[in-house]
Amino acid sequence: MELRNINTFLKVAATQNFSKAAEQLGYSQSAVTIQIRQLEKELGISLFERIGKRVYLTERGAEFTSYANEIMRVTSRASLFAKDKKEVSGTIRIGGVESVCTALLPELLLSFHKQYPKVKTVIKSGTTEKLMEMAKSNAIDFVFTLDRKICSAEWVKAVQKKERISFVTLTEEGTYEKEQMTIQELVEKPFLLTEQGAAYRYELERLLADRDLEIFPILEIGNTETIIHLLKKGMGYSFLPEFTVREELRKKRLSEIQTDIPTVEMYSQLLYCRNKWVTQEMERFIELVKQYEGQKTK
User: Fold this and answer.
1) What is the pLDDT of residues 83-100, one digit of tens each?
2) Best label site of 64, 116, 233, 291, fewest CB within 10 Å?
3) Which residues are bridge partners to 255 per DSSP?
4) Among candidates 161, 158, 132, which has minimal Cα distance to 149?
């Protein structure tokens, strides 16, 4: 069983397209077709169903992905077993929602680069839905999102952590306790909100709609750092993931507002496609994120 054919199988499974797989591998489409046929003949099963321009894993093909990934993992480890872990090289491509890209990734990337300086990192930002489509087409390796809990057989959840979303504003001089305010009072305040499409904003709007309430923001912007900067200038109120404002709350530059609607909680999740071949550099990044999340909860 040739490793080249197994690698090609995983690429076709990830892209669901022979021509895209060929382009990413640097092969001709006919070469990819031949390799898949060789593998199917050797295994004695059909790996893909071809419908139009797209291909779909058969039931047996889906079962084979776990074996294929394990073969490639073991092979990768065998070829690198004598090398120091700092010699890990290659590229990881991470897709993150905006709040994760600005608040969580910088510290992680700095630590990752110090440990593995030969690994190139590519970051893409977007909504959860867009990033998941990119991962399915193998344009990125990971989806790092903040959303409702994602449970699906086609995704592996490498890391998951519950995150609170909080109402915050500038701390008034001499005031360090959490401020109390009814939601009816709060929605009348000037709000700076992330753009529509963020899962936590959608959940807030759903809770408000249950009470026939609505927030009319004075500013909408995708960048949470800009919102935090304006909050510290006294511009208004916002609704942000707690991890984005943790340092400002700790230093009492911003204060949390307590109100009478249920606490909104989302999940930061590091995901990758189940049929994805997990490279050594991907494994190292997963380990780092797990360590980082473990340190934050202590």
Assistant:
1) 555 578 889 999 999 999
2) 233
3) 169
4) 161
DSSP 8-state code for residue 260: S
Tokens of 9: 């199988």
Cα separation of 173 and 183, whole Å? 23
Torsional sign, CA 197, 200, 206, 212:
negative
3-class DSSP state for residue 204? helix
pLDDT at site 84: 52
Beta-carbon contacts of residue 109 (< 8 Å; ≥ 6 apart): 121, 123
Contact call for residues 195 and 126 (beta carbons, < 8 A): no
Identify the three-state secondary structure at position 237: strand
- Structure-block tokens of residue 227: 């919102």
Q: What are 153-196's pLDDT values in tens digits?
A: 889 999 999 999 999 999 986 555 668 999 999 999 999 999 88
246 in Cβ contact with 297 (< 8 Å)? no
CB 153 within 8 A of CB 201: no
Reference 282, options 110, 160, 120; nearest CA is: 120
Structure tokens given for 188: 């009348």
What gap in Å lies between CA 119 and CA 161, rounded to an integer? 26
**What three-state secondary structure class fits 168?**
strand
Residue type, 235: M
CA dist 248 and 255 (Å) reads: 8
